[in-house]
Amino acid sequence: MPDATDVPTPAAAPARPERDRPWVMRTYAGHSSAAASNALYRRNLAKGQTGLSVAFDLPTQTGYDPDHVLARGEVGKVGVPISHIGDMRQLFEEIPLGEMNTSMTINAVAMYLLAMYQVAAEEQAEASGEDPADVVARLAGTTQNDIIKEYLSRGTYVFPPGPSMRLITDMVNYTVTTIPKWNPINICSYHLQEAGATPVQEIAYAMSTAIAVLDAVRDSGVVAPEDFGTVVARISFFVNAGVRFVEEMCKMRAFVQLWDELTRERYGVEDARQRRFRYGVQVNSLGLTEAQPENNVQRILLEMLAVTLSKDARARAVQLPAWNEALGLPRPWDQQWSLRMQQVLAYETDLLEHEDLFAGSRVVEGKVAELVEGARAEMARVAELGGAVAAVESGYMKSALVASHALRRQRIEDGQEVVVGVNRFESTEPNPLTADLDSAIQTVDAGVEAAAAQAVRSWREERDADAERGPRAAAALERLRAAAGTDENLMEASLECARAGITVGEWAQALRDVFGEFRAPTGVSGSVGAADGGSAELVAVREAVRGTEAELGERLRILVGKPGLDGHSNGAEQIAVRARDAGFEVIYQGIRLTPEQIVSAAVAEDVHLVGISILSGSHMELVPDVLDGLRDAGAGDIPVIVGGIIPESDAAALKALGVAEVFTPKDFGLNEIMARFVEVIRASRELPAGQAQPV
């Protein structure tokens, strides 16, 4: 028998409290093809991932098939190409959709991707002998479907605001009864922060978007007032978390407070469970750096804490970027590293064993009150303008974001805002993670695009040649067009299109025929800059521009172009604003241009330099097209510079083809870039190198 003194006291071995259930853990993934992405998903699920987050490629997101001219260079690059129900089947092969929680980052064509997802689930149910309706009722997940932020940041919009809101409303009204566990919209403040939003703007513009959506659903009259809480309960948010994690955590608590007030007071929702602020998060990809990319690991971890530490405002789902996303497409191992960060926090630490850590904190309560007050004021401003849709159409919100982003860039440039490894602590040991940069990221096989283009052509040809499938497809498209011209809910017509084998490009074109297309305001002309002052470096560049103009006897004009489908225009907008402030005349026509359109504008405007911005990885296809087009138009002497996420080997190849300069995210100094613009123009016009002659 052991002596009583050998037995530990109860305090020496305390009981472990009951733990909360962890958040849904995802990685944002998809590339190359449905088959390759399916294999990746199954590997990630086997590693402990508890939900899927599907990244679609840009042609899919913008409603084009892989063989469309605008799809050139973009197929399979930033996500998986899904063109029809056959692709959707393959994407989720051996993944039971009735048991899965799937988030789909899709907006303009969200209705059609949800329709195909539902049809794929029905087919799985029939194959296993289950009732398809029962499986559909169990489907859980989210379609992003926030088109308002697309006009402000990501740029994958297709239709004008009115028809886009109609598509959202139809989806909400359909899912709330037929797919009751589905979140039909994920209102995204994430992308607003990446476009420059301050925490106050991020809260205010997201809440204003939610008001626009909920008002539209309420005013449609489909859901009875007493049942409106079921609509509110399915509205989710997708939020950004930056490295200022105390402020970000307070931002989430402010979101919770404002959402509870809004849904109770404006929409009369009495059930507190239906008023719960439900959000998922991806931490801030904008803050990931190309320079010393190993620092991104600690950034990602700190940003995750912002949305997990506070129990009363904890994320329901988390997906983390990989450390090397500023360099290119992450490999499966990189995604695994990010997943393991979540798992260590959730399962090894005691985070989930405690009540809210910040309840009663004077500091936290003060910061939350400050954010709430600021957000209310900005929401009131948006309401005065007529609401979120009107504030998009007028350009107000876009100009505000461009201005905020410009101010942030200025703070980094002058050192007020420190970015470790970028503008401070820049000396570094050689990085073994990037010693072989070509193997440190994943690349998409060059044959993916040709294979996808041929596959979708074969799918359409075989379908149309079939005696039964061909007429059914034609009838489905005609039904969709007819329904779009009425107030009929478009989900049923879209489901028939999915079953009939209609492609994403065909579905979107049918609605383009009825709704038309849209080009959102760029926000550049109305943004705040530093045209009348600025730093000594900017003043020096401005003098160099004026001196060069005096030597040439003409105004210096530059064209900033975004070819292809890459809608991430933040960098292009900041270049355009700073170039304007440096004294250049700037031609910026927005996103989604063909190389031919860029060449035509360069020739028509008689520009001195063309700047191309591409972040989607399509630079090796689209930039040569611009160079060839300029030469064919007799304007081969116009220098071309390129900016984007471009590996060193690709940068060398572009320069060998005739590109004058390549800038990547490590080149954060906009004034230095402007000075290089002047140097490139002077060299192209055979003016003496060095400082331009003063005026």
UniProtKB/TrEMBL annotation:
<dbReference type="InterPro" id="IPR016176">
    <property type="entry name" value="Cbl-dep_enz_cat"/>
</dbReference>
<feature type="region of interest" description="Disordered">
    <location>
        <begin position="1"/>
        <end position="21"/>
    </location>
</feature>
<keyword id="KW-0479">Metal-binding</keyword>
<comment type="subunit">
    <text>Heterodimer of an alpha and a beta chain.</text>
</comment>
<protein>
    <submittedName>
        <fullName>Protein meaA</fullName>
    </submittedName>
</protein>
<dbReference type="GO" id="GO:0031419">
    <property type="term" value="F:cobalamin binding"/>
</dbReference>
<feature type="domain" description="B12-binding">
    <location>
        <begin position="555"/>
        <end position="684"/>
    </location>
</feature>
<dbReference type="InterPro" id="IPR006158">
    <property type="entry name" value="Cobalamin-bd"/>
</dbReference>
<dbReference type="GO" id="GO:0046872">
    <property type="term" value="F:metal ion binding"/>
</dbReference>
<dbReference type="InterPro" id="IPR006099">
    <property type="entry name" value="MeMalonylCoA_mutase_a/b_cat"/>
</dbReference>
<dbReference type="GO" id="GO:0004494">
    <property type="term" value="F:methylmalonyl-CoA mutase activity"/>
</dbReference>
<dbReference type="InterPro" id="IPR006159">
    <property type="entry name" value="Acid_CoA_mut_C"/>
</dbReference>
<comment type="similarity">
    <text>Belongs to the methylmalonyl-CoA mutase family.</text>
</comment>
<dbReference type="InterPro" id="IPR036724">
    <property type="entry name" value="Cobalamin-bd_sf"/>
</dbReference>
<dbReference type="InterPro" id="IPR006098">
    <property type="entry name" value="MMCoA_mutase_a_cat"/>
</dbReference>
<dbReference type="Pfam" id="PF02310">
    <property type="entry name" value="B12-binding"/>
</dbReference>
<keyword id="KW-0413">Isomerase</keyword>
<keyword id="KW-0846">Cobalamin</keyword>
<keyword id="KW-0170">Cobalt</keyword>
<feature type="compositionally biased region" description="Low complexity">
    <location>
        <begin position="1"/>
        <end position="15"/>
    </location>
</feature>
<dbReference type="Pfam" id="PF01642">
    <property type="entry name" value="MM_CoA_mutase"/>
</dbReference>
